[in-house]
Specification:
156 residues; Pnp Oxidase, Chain A; 3-stranded antiparallel β-sheet; globular; NADH-dep_flavin_reductase; FMN binding; Flavin reductase; riboflavin reductase (NADPH) activity; Split_barrel_FMN-bd
Length: 156
């Protein structure tokens, strides 16, 4: 599956005590247009997993090529009780409080639709309630073979 190229997103949610949590995810997909649904796959042993079960909402910011450092930061290993500090990157609060990264190529805000058990992961399905109009990123960040790339020229 590492050979399947995909976009890079940052899933953000507030934990049960209101702290910002974010995780770099590449297993992301559009699921349905009516209702508008997206999914993100999250490992069960990850620090953000349990927050999804109690969150009022979560967001996906689809990272731009100049946000590579942010992607690495949100993908780092964390110990229990670790905190995320996203202050170096431009953000705003979504309607339910989680962060949206305004330097992203695109972003959606979601309310929980369902959480599906999937082996060592949970598939978080969210109903899109807002599409960001204030993002400034140009080229989407791409991940394949455990490396990052920017899109190349169009091929026909």
């Amino acid at each position: 599956m590492a050979r399947l190229a995909g976009g890079v997103a940052l899933l953000t949610v507030l934990d049960p005590v209101g702290r910002d949590c974010g995780l770099t995810v590449t297993a992301v997909s559009s699921v349905s247009l009516e209702p508008p649904l997206v999914l993100a796959c999250v490992t069960k042993d990850g620090f953000i997993h349990d927050a999804l079960f109690v969150a009022d909402g979560w967001s996906l910011s689809f990272l731009a090529t100049d946000q590579l450092e942010l992607s690495h930061y949100a993908a780092r290993e964390r110990h229990p009780g670790a905190r995320d500090d996203f202050s170096p990157w431009p953000t705003r609060r979504a309607a339910r409080g989680e962060l949206v990264f305004t330097g992203a190529a695109a972003a959606v805000e979601c309310v929980p639709h369902s959480l599906v058990d999937a082996g060592d992961h949970t598939i978080a399905l969210g109903r899109v309630v807002s599409v960001a109009q204030d993002v400034t990123g140009v080229l989407p960040l791409v991940h394949v073979d455990r490396r990052y790339y920017e899109p190349g020229p169009e091929i026909t």
